Amino acid sequence: MITVLPVEGMPEVHPGDEIADLIAASIALEKGDVVVVTQKIVSKAEGRLEEVADDEGRLRLIERESVRVLRRRDELVISETQQGFVCANAGVDLSNVDDGVAALLPVDSDRSARHIRDALAARTGVGVAVVVSDTFGRPWRRGLVDVALGCAGVAAIVDLRGTEDTRGRTLQATEVAIADELASAAELVMGKDRQVPVAIVRGVDPSWLRESSVHSEIVRPHNEDLFR
Amino acid sequence: MITVLPVEGMPEVHPGDEIADLIAASIALEKGDVVVVTQKIVSKAEGRLEEVADDEGRLRLIERESVRVLRRRDELVISETQQGFVCANAGVDLSNVDDGVAALLPVDSDRSARHIRDALAARTGVGVAVVVSDTFGRPWRRGLVDVALGCAGVAAIVDLRGTEDTRGRTLQATEVAIADELASAAELVMGKDRQVPVAIVRGVDPSWLRESSVHSEIVRPHNEDLFR
Known about the structure:
Chain A folds into two domains: 3-48 and 106-221, CATH 3.30.1330.100; 49-105, CofE-like fold (Alpha-Beta Complex).
């Protein structure tokens, strides 16, 4: 059984804040918890904020954060970010920040996740894993889902290839993106209209708790990508 | 708080079986539960099985189930199915079925979900929602995640547009694909190597429990799709 707990009562996050302090003050963590933290508060804590005067400034910022534009329609830009993510508007986000300010994606979300994980361990003595999540659209399917931008202490991908199915045959193509599924599960208790930027996923398979990285495990290299 | 419970001890499913009977015999449902059922046992119960003698037969089946091929590399075909899903090999699946047999996607997974939901209500008197899930790859990101093929009694998409963010500004682009996130959350307790084809997601926001359809809400029409 897995439980997904919203972390209620988190204060507004400002540049320089230590997110681990705010989480530790809001909920009692247990060993093996996966702490899912939305990108927005990570970007704020890390000061990844930029002033944008107008739509033109926003577009310049999107272009600066992009290494390549894949599609463009009206105000929507689908591009590949410097971190290798393909998403809308290079992750440049104007919601839940001050007017005239945009939040950018963390420079290295795996490093952000490791920092929060280590700071939580130092403060609480409890060994937890961390996923930094963001809300992405998908081709072919309407609606947004939360996915992992970074992780620490939990597998990004669990490789079930080589294990046997219930008939004893070797399974193929069963690399499951656990970190993305954890981000999606966490989103179910967050909501966009409530002040719940952190959720705990408790009770995950202990074998998933290992060193990992979204960048090295999930971001698909160009040479194996059929859609880039 | 949300809890995700694996339904253990489900027997092997055969054509003609009533999945609702097997679920009702295995777990005590509660009002408002979302019952996530993997496509494989739905396809088996509905007799969506075909003999395939060899690789060539498998390829013919994939082409028959596809309305259009988007990409092809070696043995992998990415195509659009008759149901409008874009996935690998048109969902034709050789794992966890008898040798020489392939499982096809249900003809109408929303209808399958409604059937299971109605049969559960008739047998147990408990009003639950149902999601039929399958495991899909994604462009740009490695690893597979579970998504919804069909749903009944729970929103496929929850539209938070028009609600306000924590600053009182109207949010944009926040249509969340709840049914896909429910499928992903359920997968976390299923695993591919265990006999757990059903999971319960308990404690979802009651406002999500309404009539819906993956086909009408999530499958993206061609004219608004930038990647088809």
